[in-house]
Specification:
single chain; mainly beta; 7-stranded mixed β-sheet
Length: 119
């Protein structure tokens, strides 16, 4: 059974930081691309950070320079360090694991963790 379990969300003041963690089980973690998405209230889910199975990160412009994604294959964990948070970062954050080789494709999601940026 595949599980992605996020943790680390909460309430933080503008300008503050949070670190989200996602622990995966039931998959060969090192073969998966990992990513963090978020869904602000009333909006569509959007990508905020992605890291390849080789460890190469990428970010959209909205978070580049503020967010850092890492992975630890030995611990089946991916983390998202978020700095300089603004109220616009308020959302439910989801961990995603994605694998595709030829015709085989696996796409798994965590249950989400709420991040609220407010004074």
């Amino acid at each position: 059974q595949v599980q992605l379990v996020e943790s680390g969300g909460g309430l933080v003041q503008p300008g503050g930081s949070l670190k989200l963690s996602c622990v995966a089980s039931g998959i060969n973690f090192g073969l998966y691309q990992m990513a963090w998405y978020r869904q602000p209230p009333g909006k569509r889910r959007e990508l905020v950070a992605i890291i390849s199975k080789e460890g190469s990160p990428d970010y959209p412009l909205s978070v580049k320079g503020r967010f850092t994604i890492t992975r630890d294959n030995a611990r089946n964990t991916t983390n998202l360090q978020m700095n300089s948070l603004t109220p616009e970062d308020t959302a439910v954050y989801y961990c995603n694991a994605y694998y595709k080789v030829m015709w085989r494709e696996n796409d798994y999601w965590g249950q989400g963790t709420q991040v609220t940026v407010s004074s």
